[in-house]
Protein: AKP13 protein
Amino acid sequence: GDSVITVQLTEEDKVEDDVVFYLVFTGSTVQHCTSTRKINPGSLETISPGHDCCETVKVALCASREGHPVLVVAEESFQFVQDEAYDAAQFLATCAGNQQALNFTRFLDRSRPPAADVDFLDEKVALAFRHLKLPAEWNVLGADQSLSENIPRETLMHFAVRLGLLRLTWFLLQQPGGRGALSIHNNEGATPVSLALERGYQKLHQLLTEEEAREPDSWSTLSHTVHSGDYSVKHHRGLDVYMLTAEA
Structure:
């Protein structure tokens, strides 16, 4: 999801300004409808939706005009593929609470990837996490909720903070167990909050300690999503396009 899609119109499809174009993506269980913006008389632009599985879906370009029926202008197929970021998000989601797996991820810290790579990783993995179908009972601290806060252990929050993954940390904070993870010490006695401070991650420390902390403005160009039952509406501020997603 969140890639720019360009639609080239044929000569006969270039019509008056009062015609509005939409793309409708129909998958096996989910359907998305995205608005478009006109770049010029022959080109449209929109954002690809984040889909719930890897499959080939049908895409219809629809034209709407007040007082007229909606027309299907063209149809095409579109393939959603599984990339490394999605694999990483799936791995992290399934190893929440798995100490062996979480300790294994610490080798990433020793390799210290460059800041640009960390930023790219952060954006892509956080985006993939948003599109994962997490079980209703999923928790940042893992499946075993009987563990006391006093038991030292590694958590997903330690992983995200150690690498300075701002967006992923913000996502985890909104999930069940996210706030609870902030006070858990690992085997070295560090909490996610103390790790952020020790490493000089000022923005991250602020995110973890401010009660009224909001999603950083610098990410607001990405998107804002509102969920309601089986529906969600997403506004991509950069292109000013909207996306309606519904269970088919």
